[in-house]
């Protein structure tokens, strides 16, 4: 089997028809579809059963499970996938047929992953910011891969690499891709970056990660910790640790603060202070050397936004108590743990 397309579905009845139409056009026997209904409460499961019944000549595996989040669904799919490569696709997005041909053409080269460009709102996105070509990863060049790994969704990844190294997603959370950027680069030895568009990212449907803040927004905190803990166990030198720390500060503190961004005083300010207070606890726990102000200054945001973040950091010192239980209780409530 060449390629396993692993696709989680959660209440996707209305937003997944475009992708299913694309899958129906794939006739090659060396491509399988691993579809996971992750506890949907709408008509998603019925739609998937109908889709499987309509493609008797194709390789379609259908899993129905209780809701464990997109990471839990992908893990279930990965465990039964048979392809040399695995591609994790979101049900409201799409892939190109050309990309499958490219994977097939390069299958004998044993790349750890093949990375495609992304089409987003009719614009081209190269999430790795690399020129097309083959890349060999050495211990000396791993820093660059940690910095430029890009998005998981644009990559067909070696199933052997994932299974043999026990690399799975965190479950019962969203933002489940974030931790893997801390982990994958340590196992990659060779990859191919291609110029072709392989993944089409659509924005017309509401998403947890694009909608207004909710209780599940706090999952980005959990997944950032998950990634840092795993990455630090794999890091072999101080430079790798530094990059992991930079990535953690960005994912845990800066991006979270921006998710709750509010110029005028609001309840979001208190949330930001709680996050920053908890970051200070984690800073001690993981012995993070980078200073928060330096990280803010090095961020991609406008100077006015950087000033806002620095002000919030100063104000966050008004929170005196540890916030671990507060955030743990939110996650337990959100996912019924």
From TrEMBL:
UniProt superkingdom? Bacteria
InterPro entries hit by this protein: Glyco_trans_2-like, Nucleotide-diphossugar_trans
Span of domain Glycosyltransferase 2-like = 4-124
What does the UniProt keyword field contain? Answer: Glycosyltransferase, Transferase
Q: Does the keyword rRNA-binding apply?
A: no
CDD domains, alphabetically? Glyco_tranf_GTA_type (cd00761)
The question of whether Transferase is a record keyword is answered with yes
Name-wise, this protein is Glycosyltransferase family 2 protein
The organism is Psychrobacter glacincola
């Amino acid at each position: 089997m060449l390629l396993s397309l692993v696709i989680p579905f959660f209440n996707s009845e209305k937003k997944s028809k475009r992708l299913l139409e694309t899958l129906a056009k794939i006739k090659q026997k060396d491509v399988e579809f691993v579809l996971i209904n992750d506890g949907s409460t709408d008509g998603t499961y019925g739609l998937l059963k109908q889709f499987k019944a309509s493609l008797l000549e194709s390789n379609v595996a259908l899993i129905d499970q209780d809701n464990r989040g997109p990471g839990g669904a992908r893990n279930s799919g990965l465990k039964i996938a048979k392809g040399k490569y695995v591609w994790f696709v979101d049900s409201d997005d799409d892939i190109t047929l050309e990309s499958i041909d490219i994977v097939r053409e390069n299958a004998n080269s044993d790349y750890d992953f093949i990375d495609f460009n992304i089409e987003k709102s009719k614009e081209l996105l190269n999430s790795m910011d690399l020129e097309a070509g083959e890349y060999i990863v050495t211990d000396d060049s791993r820093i660059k891969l940690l910095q430029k790994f890009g998005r998981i969704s644009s990559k067909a990844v070696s199933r052997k690499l994932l299974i043999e190294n026990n690399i799975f997603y965190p479950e019962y959370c969203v933002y489940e891709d974030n931790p893997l950027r801390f982990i994958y680069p340590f196992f990659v030895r060779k990859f191919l970056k291609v110029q072709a568009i392989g993944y089409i990212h659509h924005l017309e449907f509401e998403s947890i990660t694009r909608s207004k803040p909710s209780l599940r927004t706090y999952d980005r905190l959990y997944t950032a910790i998950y990634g840092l803990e795993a990455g630090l166990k794999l890091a072999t030198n101080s430079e790798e640790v530094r990059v992991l720390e930079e990535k953690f500060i960005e994912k845990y503190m800066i991006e979270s603060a921006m998710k709750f961004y509010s110029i005028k005083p609001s309840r979001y300010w208190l949330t930001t202070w709680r996050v920053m207070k908890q970051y200070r606890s984690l800073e001690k726990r993981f012995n993070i050397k980078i200073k928060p102000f330096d990280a803010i200054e090095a961020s991609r945001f406008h100077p006015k936004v950087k000033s806002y973040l620095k002000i919030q950091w100063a104000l966050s010192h008004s929170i005196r108590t540890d916030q671990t239980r507060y955030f743990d209780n939110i996650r337990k409530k959100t996912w019924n743990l």
